[in-house]
Amino acid sequence: MPMNVRPVLALNERINHIRMTTARIVNNEILPFERLLAGRAEPGEGPTAAEARARVRAEVVEAGLWAPHLPPEYGGAGLTFLEHAYMNEILAYSGIAARLFGVVAPNSGNQQILLRYGTEAQKQRWLVPLTEGRLESGFSMTEPESAGSDPRAIRTTARRDGDFWVINGHKWFTSNGKRADFLIVMCRTEDPTGPAERNGKMTQMIVPTNTPGLKIVRGIEVWGQDSDHCEIRYDDVRVPVENQLGTVGSGHEAAQHRLGAGRVYHCMNSIGHMWRAFDLMVERATMREVHGGLLETKQFVQGFIADSYIDIQAARLMTIACAEKMDGGGDARTDISAIKVFVPACFERVVDRAIQVWGAAGVSGDLPLWAMAQGARTLRLADGPDEVHRILIAKNVLGQVHGGENWSFD
Ligand SMILES: Cc1cc2nc3c(=O)[nH]c(=O)nc-3n(C[C@H](O)[C@H](O)[C@H](O)COP(=O)(O)OP(=O)(O)OC[C@H]3O[C@@H](n4cnc5c(N)ncnc54)[C@H](O)[C@@H]3O)c2cc1C
Fold this sequence. Notes:
Layout: H1 13-30, H2 34-37, H3 49-62, H4 81-91, H5 97-100, H6 107-117, H7 120-131, E1 137-140, E2 157-161, E3 164-174, E4 182-190, E5 201-208, E6 214-219, E7 230-240, E8 244-245, H8 251-287, E9 289-290, E10 293-294, H9 299-327, H10 333-358, H11 369-379, H12 386-402
Parallel strand pairs: 1-4, 2-4
Antiparallel strand pairs: 2-3, 3-7, 4-5, 5-8, 6-7, 9-10
Bound molecules: flavin-adenine dinucleotide (FAD).
């Protein structure tokens, strides 16, 4: 059955139009051809996966929704933050739709960094081809020898040598590493000849993957499968100073900016995935007969339906409240941390119930639930693990209380 999307009364006409158009493309052009589009169909007559993807992409461009997170002058659809957030919950009903709409991680986060911190020359050289699908990219921050949950612990250095930065370090879990044409690498800058304040500051560098000294050691197995999350060594990798992104020392702020909006988008994506898992679970409950009755007549299963409904609505409304606060220019740091903990936990529960109701089929390749279960679990540690966000929430609340004010839920 198709995803059932209706206009939301509280939303303006444009956001409703974007949601309905996205739903039309997902329902008509993506869901019936998901295996083909994912490259998992048996070879036979009819279009190839590449041809099918090109057809959907043309439809998305025609609808004015390609690269929703970018302005038109750099090849995007120019959606506002809220429009994009509301679009994501529809888009993510299919796990492969993001790529077909030109808004796939890690490229999308890198595009936003390039947009905000890049010079015009960097935008033309890296951002435009990335948006047009002529280049691929990765974001290289996490290191095996230091805690990824503490960005101050980064050890990779960029030492200034004349008109070059020379990068040395060891990273891992750089997603898209093998496909990437360039990486945005988080470094600790050292400039013995420059002003003292340049030393020890975090700065991001654009590093083409064919630069001598950059070695992809391996794609790390994730959940027992080969992956494109790569371990990478940087040994005396020289990049011209023009490849520095933003000012020296802006790296941490740039990463926070990338992650802040990104967390809302990720949560809206998780809601789209949950919506699909929920529909699949309810569908199975209305069809499968066990022990003399349909699953839907069993109270355990009715409980699953109710609990998943509650999880999804709570996660959705919390994320929308956070997005609206950000959009209105409010301080949403506590809300962002709260959704980053709460939504993946709901996602895990909702998918787990759907798998349970489907029995063996739930963990099979015939359904998307296995991938959702792994994705939901991974979200609890990527982009800041649960514990770090809980600590931040408590710190903000206690900071305000010690400053003389109780917390205000607004
Ligand atoms: C599939 C996948 C894709 C990824 N893609 C990328 C990518 O493209 N680029 C990139 O740079 N990174 C990427 N990462 C890495 C990810 O961002 C890090 O794994 C994450 O930031 C956590 O860092 P860490 O693994 O070093 O864990 P650590 O920092 O070592 O933390 C380990 C655990 O310690 C606990 N912990 C941490 N701090 C505290 C605390 N203060 N109090 C109590 N407990 C604490 C948490 O339970 C945490 O999970 C990816 C990871 C995965 C799994």
